[in-house]
Fold each of these.
Amino acid sequence: MSIKNKLIYGGDYYPEQWMDHPKILEQDIQFIKKAGINLITVGVFAWSVIEPKEGEYHFSWLEEIIDRLYENEISVMLATPSGARPKWLAQKYPEALRVNEGRQRNLFGERHNHCFTSPVYREKVRKINTKLAECFAGHPAVAFWHISNEYGGECHCPLCQKAFQEWLRKKYGTVEKLNKAWWTRFWSHTYDSFEEVESPSSVGEKSIHGLNLDWKRFVSDQTIDFMRHEIQALRDAGAKQPATTNMMYDFQGINYGKMAEYLDIVSWDSYPLWGKKEDVRIALDNGMQHDYMRSLKHRPFLLLESCPSATNWQGVSKLKKPGVLMNASLQSIAHGGDSVQYFQIRQSRGSSEKFHGSVIDHYGGADTRVFLEICQVGRTLESLSEIAGSDVHAKAALIYDIENRWAMEDAQGPRNDGLYYHEAAFKSYQALKHCGLDVDVIDMDQKLDGYQIIAAPMLYMFRSDMEGKLREFVKNGGTLIMTYWSGIVNETDLCHLGGTPHDLTDVLGLRSEEIDGLYDWEENTAEPAAENELGIVRPYTGKNLCDLVQLKGALALMVYGSDFYAGRPALTKNTFGNGTAYYVCADMEEAFYRDVYKKICERAGIQGLLEDVPEGITVNSRENREYQYLFIQNYGQEPVRVALPEGYEILAGEYEGAVAAMSTVVWKRRK
Amino acid sequence: MSIKNKLIYGGDYYPEQWMDHPKILEQDIQFIKKAGINLITVGVFAWSVIEPKEGEYHFSWLEEIIDRLYENEISVMLATPSGARPKWLAQKYPEALRVNEGRQRNLFGERHNHCFTSPVYREKVRKINTKLAECFAGHPAVAFWHISNEYGGECHCPLCQKAFQEWLRKKYGTVEKLNKAWWTRFWSHTYDSFEEVESPSSVGEKSIHGLNLDWKRFVSDQTIDFMRHEIQALRDAGAKQPATTNMMYDFQGINYGKMAEYLDIVSWDSYPLWGKKEDVRIALDNGMQHDYMRSLKHRPFLLLESCPSATNWQGVSKLKKPGVLMNASLQSIAHGGDSVQYFQIRQSRGSSEKFHGSVIDHYGGADTRVFLEICQVGRTLESLSEIAGSDVHAKAALIYDIENRWAMEDAQGPRNDGLYYHEAAFKSYQALKHCGLDVDVIDMDQKLDGYQIIAAPMLYMFRSDMEGKLREFVKNGGTLIMTYWSGIVNETDLCHLGGTPHDLTDVLGLRSEEIDGLYDWEENTAEPAAENELGIVRPYTGKNLCDLVQLKGALALMVYGSDFYAGRPALTKNTFGNGTAYYVCADMEEAFYRDVYKKICERAGIQGLLEDVPEGITVNSRENREYQYLFIQNYGQEPVRVALPEGYEILAGEYEGAVAAMSTVVWKRRK
Amino acid sequence: MSIKNKLIYGGDYYPEQWMDHPKILEQDIQFIKKAGINLITVGVFAWSVIEPKEGEYHFSWLEEIIDRLYENEISVMLATPSGARPKWLAQKYPEALRVNEGRQRNLFGERHNHCFTSPVYREKVRKINTKLAECFAGHPAVAFWHISNEYGGECHCPLCQKAFQEWLRKKYGTVEKLNKAWWTRFWSHTYDSFEEVESPSSVGEKSIHGLNLDWKRFVSDQTIDFMRHEIQALRDAGAKQPATTNMMYDFQGINYGKMAEYLDIVSWDSYPLWGKKEDVRIALDNGMQHDYMRSLKHRPFLLLESCPSATNWQGVSKLKKPGVLMNASLQSIAHGGDSVQYFQIRQSRGSSEKFHGSVIDHYGGADTRVFLEICQVGRTLESLSEIAGSDVHAKAALIYDIENRWAMEDAQGPRNDGLYYHEAAFKSYQALKHCGLDVDVIDMDQKLDGYQIIAAPMLYMFRSDMEGKLREFVKNGGTLIMTYWSGIVNETDLCHLGGTPHDLTDVLGLRSEEIDGLYDWEENTAEPAAENELGIVRPYTGKNLCDLVQLKGALALMVYGSDFYAGRPALTKNTFGNGTAYYVCADMEEAFYRDVYKKICERAGIQGLLEDVPEGITVNSRENREYQYLFIQNYGQEPVRVALPEGYEILAGEYEGAVAAMSTVVWKRRK
């Protein structure tokens, strides 16, 4: 097939919407080929066409399309249709529809409005997946399985309540253990049996953090279990192609780390808000997600959805300026992705995404600005084929953990008006990228082996032996940068007694005594301590949260500049074993992170891909056995001079000492 | 009766609230007469007094009041009481209460909280209306029927679901046609029968635009059907007086164009926010509504409700400054109204509108500032009696369509943060008024015959053969000004294929290729093209939406000043047949509309009522067989000099070359 | 016991959360003693531990704790556990859970989620209270009963509907009277029987102000009745200790004036937002609440809860800067409180208040900044023991009435965007404090005897013969300052006819004719009238509401500066009997209140505790038979010089002509 040893270029396609327009279907293939697209996704949301009546399956139309694509040397990613159930299923099996947190059964409608616990729904999905696999698992065009679509949401029906209670029983064994873990004597919330536990609700209980947290875990686990059930049906029917499901940007509903275990390849849907802020900031934020997705399996991922033009469901449907589509597409490759895929090939005529950008729009001509840029991306991806399958070897890791987030953002205090976890993680990420480093974005379940530097911002919850792994990492010579509001609670959100950051006070050489919340309009400063080791010379402002620490061996590199804690440590350093542990006490401004991380890397001898990363530029690398590939992207409106290390040759793009505005240059170098 | 050949001066009156205060009732008549009021509305919300127990009707109190009014030469507008049902009805017939969109049956309470489908409710209303007509249809005081009050709202009960399904069956014939029209294969939302369709709900389906749109149409139709049912009951019982119902400002719940067909006379309730912005802007905005109401039947309308003082349910209950009441009252007349009516004659002592301004307030004296101004308005209306019944003959029309709005504001994209349809329409309206023109505000169902200039802003949906009518209009020599985001979808919100504005690309000489959404803080400019025909010399700023068009024969009169589409057309002109079609590409600032419309009118030789309309001034005219009447209103705080065409004599107000601050002058001229 | 003749120093303690940590329990007693704490509250929310299964009572753990405390000379405040019901109770008796206003029965969870009407819940509470009293009423350590916890909330279940209907029947006698009082003919809302009345609901009736108001009264009465039921159970079982329940800051849910009648001592929970604004403003606002609480019974109150550090459920968990805890604690004493009590002794490890500040935190050491300050407060309170039991004798009263607020804020108009009742009351309070006066904050049910000056801002509703009492007060020589929007309605929110402020137009020498609402961005000014008696020389700005009055004998001391009512009175004065009545026409700026009240006091010869109260300083006094105690608190960041009257000696704090930054000095003087 055409996609072997190639970067994938593709998109979601809904021929079932156009079956009474055979000419359009005909024409679409021409557009697809012209654009250089080599993989088409079909079947997403097609349930009502595949099985219009219960047990009555219609596959011929789909077979026809897949055959046509195959004839045209285009591979297929085949989706299971469970992203939306047909009306007849909802009518006949009301249990398949979700119950909301207010305990009302939903009506039919929308997308993921079905209960992942429901035996009937699982059975119906199993059947249709089985049929799909029986029909298409052997088809030479089919290269991937796309499992459902953007899993998410939760159901509070009686079946889910029961499943949740069983989940808890399995986790805790006895209800006494649950009561202790959730600290239920507070407000007399003690449970006498697992059967008494109800999911959190605005008309019931919302204040037991342990309950809220375990419910989120259960919902995530139940969703993953459903996905496994879907995949199993395919496998049982003989499907051997790799399976993926499309994840979403910074999605809070699922622990993707756990989900990824059951996928053959990770993929995600990326819709950055280009133009809303400086594009390089948008790119870095999106890059952090790319790195997160890649780090889930430490293998190439797919960019399963992206938009070639304006995205209709965003607040403002902004056009992509010339060059943005190319840069956005190549960013996926730069961060370790092996594909660029669009939602969608042809714009629907009706319903809620009819104005979503697409390869072919309502006008239907090939002479549009957007289509011409799409063709250009196709050619560029073709020219980068050798990169397919190569890896990213990161020296740096950022710990960014969804369960930590669930717990931290639900726990009341120390700043209900905003903790800014994502922003804190992004500040560290941005600073590491500014050092010219490839960065893995990992959760607490991952190993820390092989990294030289680890940023650990706001690790409120220590789980999966985070404290033990960080201790080892530093002892063995690593550089750790931890921040305020870390090591506060255990896995069930119970506060650690005896001093925090829990079990790392010796590693960090300090104990957090109090943490001050600042109003939105307040700020403090960190002032350099005289003759501090890092040679910091200027003050930086901090906001939101200020940790007051007692030093137990660490050195204060910076101190607070104002309030009653002026003069107390704002940045500390401690030597532990062969390594070094820094502690950032306050929610400092971005410049602090960028400057201080740079100095920390210099001092630790950690080298970036470029000596210096100019403003507006991003740098990434991939490597295979023979070559290292270097991606330099300019997201600004002006060309930027970039001093390249020796030994590189250009693989794509243009370079005469500078990278042109809004453009990408790819180099390679034999290792 | 006293109101023949007179302008009506009146108000809503609730004697039933004061039946144990006979002296107050006595006194009220004196106040009414003193104010020059000649029409009193009674019966609104009086159901619980008229029929305190099921089938037990009490009309004597009402008869007494009507007799008293008649004796005092005051006419009566008699209301059907269906605006609020009595408690016994709700208790006995729960089906009469509405079910909200979350599918919960309402409790008793508020006003329009009854199901317009409910057979029981319809029957109870039929009975009481029949009784009312039997009692009062022959009473010489009764001049009008006021049907219910401010119809609105929706019900999702099983009866309404059924009625909606029947409505759809009637419209589409087969469910296959419905599926195509709603594009239901998107997200597998195909229906197998009409019986499966459910009304939109936040606990069900909200994303099928075709469903949402047809639901709005159904709700509107069902409301109108209910109103017809009410009127029929009166007619069957022998009532012959004209019937009206009070419409509301920019109301989104009903297609008033359809409703007006079944009314003898249009009326509406006007509560402008005087003092919130420059008063002339408030006046123009309110004037656009007056024109909309008049244009519904192209006949004089009634100002059924207005407030003589502060309106209690607004965010800020602002007093009317001296002169505002007079100007606001005469504005109704200026725009083709034949009445000034107040809510309310006497302030209620309790409940939610007890602080609503009124002719007689809680204090109860005739020596208040407000009452004195009310008397003055009465005298002025008396002096303008000859104007009653005269028409407005507008050269200009603004197309402003409720179904277009329903569709456009529900469709996701291109700017969910705000499309500003009303604002866009207002910019065109204001510009036409600034040209000194009388303006009809019409929807797409109306004919375009007789107009010289038509503004067609944001006609996202073309329905009722809009494209055909506009084509004819231009071909026959008319001047059309269309804007961005027009001609995108058909009547069921399906996107037109092959280029937009649909079927008018030749008339406009262009095709819209892409549309850019701008963030709130962004703007672009339109720069005059060199030697443009209109002689535009300065740039103007635009925001929100920028259409990128490909010219197909049109001339670019202005071009964008920035972004990647700098230099592309921002304002175009095309000659088609005997007429001219302009296209405004972006959401331009008001000054653009005012200046450009002025130049367009000049070029097309379209003359206004005044050569020049000064800032702060509004101009309107009415005419009967013999005379033309000219209304010039000054809404500013300073006198304004106005150069009057020849041949006019003053009918009301004072003029010595200038119109005094916050005042009105009315002239007449023999035709 | 140790607390006789002492100020109480205490806190809430939850040993039941730590029963498997005997060492912690051991240690806690040491902390408590070290801090100087002499009263410990136990039992709050302990139901699930006391009665883990229905009818199975476990008191031994509680007895052990109380014995331990007693051995250590620490008294006990014993709580009834009804603040949260155990799970088994909710499971077995669903009627015990509340029904929300949308008519949905709540699930188990949160705190006050139980129906105060439910016979079953009442019976269960009666039983456990009886048991508690049987066990502990005779224990020598038990000094107080703490009834439930922070009563609040409402239930709309069928039992409550029935109880509401009975409440109404008792109040009105006949449904006709109810209909008149609620003015139900408006919108045909007439009730045919009490059984038809339903509580206000967003899915039913929200617009009958009389209904809304009586519902609030019923909810308040029902809560109080439940509290009485709780206390009765204790008394019936032989408990003789005084009973209190903890009230809350500016709480809208209960008429505390009525509640206090059934309490032996008033107490409240105070959590000021120190640091959010200037601390002296925070202090004054909190002081107004202290004064309100003291004035409920005109006897010393308890500060039942306060936070020694950051409060986790506030938007920002701000640390208390050094000195704030001491000042905040002594403020309670300064305003007539006899205690400083904390929530909580030991921080819980889990659930929603785990980050709430406490005497002992998760770290668990005695070497924290917070604990050291807590010890210091303990020592200071010890040194002030002689003040315990002394009273406050205020010359000034501020009328601040909850029923007035309920009615005014529900009534639509004259400014739905904000009436600012609390702010208006605070402006008067602040001004009186600035005059150096002790102030009672009283509701309309209280007597006015003994005051020299009364501020009566925004008394929209006159109830409890407010007009009669104010008339007497002025006639007998008092100084009254009334404002705009007073005397508008009667007790059932029916508007007074014939002129307002109702029945006081002669006392004030004016009638309010109209009231203008101003937009947020608008303002007017009050300009001094020439040679006005008070010698006011500068203009002040006013916002929001401007009353236009007709003088009927009063003098205009100031007049409006702009708008059409420029020159009309803005501040008036009238002599009536032996007294003087001022009327403030508009919502004036704070400086107006401070300056004008000062001048009014001077003119009336009303003397403050200090000649002059400097910026940033608060002054209060208490007295017993022999001594007067003077509290001067500096809430600023700089020392402030204070000129002290003669005869005082220092009881606590340091003073050398100035009071140090953020500190308190207490003086005493023999009377």
Amino acid sequence: MSISLPREPDFDKAGGLVPAIAQDAANGQVLMMAWMNREAFQETLATGRAVYFSRSRNKLWRKGEESGHQQQVRQILIDCDADTVLLQVEQKGAACHEGYRTCFFREVGTDETKIVESRLVDPSDVYKK
Amino acid sequence: MSISLPREPDFDKAGGLVPAIAQDAANGQVLMMAWMNREAFQETLATGRAVYFSRSRNKLWRKGEESGHQQQVRQILIDCDADTVLLQVEQKGAACHEGYRTCFFREVGTDETKIVESRLVDPSDVYKK
């Protein structure tokens, strides 16, 4: 069985957008999941800065453009089906708009949901309304 | 700003399915990304075994039911928007149907795509046709 070596995700199969997971290259913490279209992926590859596609704003989202909390990309991996991207990044500041380093700051258990991370920054200091 | 403590992802907002990332609880390796509907999520929460929803087969996918490569779930996290799940798992064998421990075994660079992991098992030994 031979393994293909695609140059980019299969955006057509995925309907134009693929999930992109950002993981802290230094400590392995999963920081966030967002979406990429072909343009976002190619700009990420070319510049080494994480660029996503914002579904709510319907445009490219250069991570950190407002908050300053950019992601320097150390490695880009794609999965077996070529429909998911994993970025190994150096995260500046907090990945999450809620001010946590990771968006995954809540644990769901059978009895309760609880916050398991500490806030790094106050979101109101980062995002000016 | 108060943080909500939802008991499950917002499946309705997400159209019924949310991405679920599985990460090796021991070494932090991101193993795979799949999808969960409410039933898959609730069964995962109740049993402590990862259950996904297979979009191609249009049914619940109890990870490892064919391969034996199950995932024991140590922690379930949800992201800030409550539309992505992160599972911390103990992975038995290989997460990937291609026989690699992780589905993210290929690195995309500006010049080439290359395989950066080693196969654990031969898929033809695992999946009987």
Amino acid sequence: MSTRVGIIGYGNLGRGVECAIKQNPDMELVAVFTRRAPESVSILTQTATVCKIDDIENWKGKIDVMILCGGSATDLPEQTPVYAKMFNVVDSFDTHARIPEHFDNVDKASKEGENVALISAGWDPGMFSLNRMYASAILVDGADYTFWGKGVSQGHSDAIRRIEGVKDAKQYTVPVEAALEAVRSGRNPELTTRQKHTRECYVVLEEGADATKVENEIKTMPNYFADYDTTVHFISEEELKKNHSGIPHGGFVIRSGKTGWNSENNHIIEYSLKLDSNPEFTASVIVAYARAVARLSKEGQSGCKTVFDIAPAYLSTKDGAELRKTML
Amino acid sequence: MSTRVGIIGYGNLGRGVECAIKQNPDMELVAVFTRRAPESVSILTQTATVCKIDDIENWKGKIDVMILCGGSATDLPEQTPVYAKMFNVVDSFDTHARIPEHFDNVDKASKEGENVALISAGWDPGMFSLNRMYASAILVDGADYTFWGKGVSQGHSDAIRRIEGVKDAKQYTVPVEAALEAVRSGRNPELTTRQKHTRECYVVLEEGADATKVENEIKTMPNYFADYDTTVHFISEEELKKNHSGIPHGGFVIRSGKTGWNSENNHIIEYSLKLDSNPEFTASVIVAYARAVARLSKEGQSGCKTVFDIAPAYLSTKDGAELRKTML
């Protein structure tokens, strides 16, 4: 029997999860839950239902894993503990600083409901975290580096859009090639914020807006841009739609470390992602972990987990013997 | 209390394990077991003993994890099942085709002895296997590529040394940059053996040997060289010692896959290693998994495991809360 999955929240991530489920024949999307009027939400999967989020309790026992696709700022801190009492859940909570608190809340709720919860699935947190952890456990004497991009930062794009005179905008975070090369050389450089990433902005102005003023406001914006070398390109609305409507992203996790009786040998471990669609890749990671969560729950486990707690084999449709034969 | 480790076999890998243990304060090397006369083996760790392999049974209960550093061709298939009856063990068995059989033998023995055994730790099999598995579980619709090098192949170097007229030799396996780029482009190319790797040989001739004949014998050697573009450099013994005495290696695991309702988006996951010392890096992976094995044994588990079966957190000295706070 396939694993019955529900989705809460049907934005880019929810749609990504829907697409990922289609690629995994052992998974089945049964329902999408929304705060909107269900009849106004049109999904791609003909065999699934769109439901009001208020009706979710009626689905207890009919869904094996619920995937929460809301935002980390306000949705998930509230939703994940609530739904972890009713269902096995997976979320992609990505506010790194608040993970310990979120974990504790979800752990309590999921134990109460005797469910398994997995938080912070995706690529950072997620696959990048895993790679930081594996690499640092192997190369004990070393340094970690994470670079992001080239990719669209939603938060930075939003910050530009809030500036007066800006009609629309897209911001790309770009890793600095020279910094990457310095890290790969094994020299363990100390890198400033400015040395690691640049920021490229594509901006559509409102009619009559002052380009110089907007550019200056972007480049001097604290936290978002002031500490970076920032480039601003003014383009037409058509150009933005044509060339910048995708949501690509990616990045690099590099560990540089030494071994040998006198630390005489250098090693570089590098993990990188080049993603056409940030939400679809995140969704693909989530769905693999949903498989693991369903299995752990069947084994009688409960409580909150992260990617660190899941043995890799749980993610695969192949059994142990097949994995050893084909992948080891 | 630290984890007490024993090493069986004191070659390059055994010495690498000794160095890795020095870097991990929670681990302690207590004894090295050898087939040679113990007084003829001089190790680096002053607090550890060198013992005859025949005395190993006296160490039951005094060693938490035994690390087997013999070869995969003849040593490990015999040794790992024998010692898994007495101790928790880790090996780096790397004959991919014989892993299922080795697993079954070790599983039986370790269950009989109520010990935990982990086989095939290292980087391939090992970290490369893990990355193949994670990436294929995430990008279900895709293709896997593994490239090795640039690095020294012991087997190919040995094959050259067996040719008449050859005094010494070192062979490097080199991935073809154009093939790597084709894979990274997301085009999922079908690559022949010749298109993926080239082979570079550095050869020292015996006095009076026929260079042309040796070069021809190398280049036409079936399995080892005939299917590759092979370059042969004749150099002096001094040059070989000076420039080719290291044991570097590395490689790339790349998964290229598609997501989206109509498979419209491409993604590339790439994991790469650049290693100054193949045995020391392998040893570092082994020691991290020895930590996991000691913990699983304390939890009361037994039987044979592979890297697929171990939750990542078991490899780290940090506890769950610390991992979530610092690495997620």
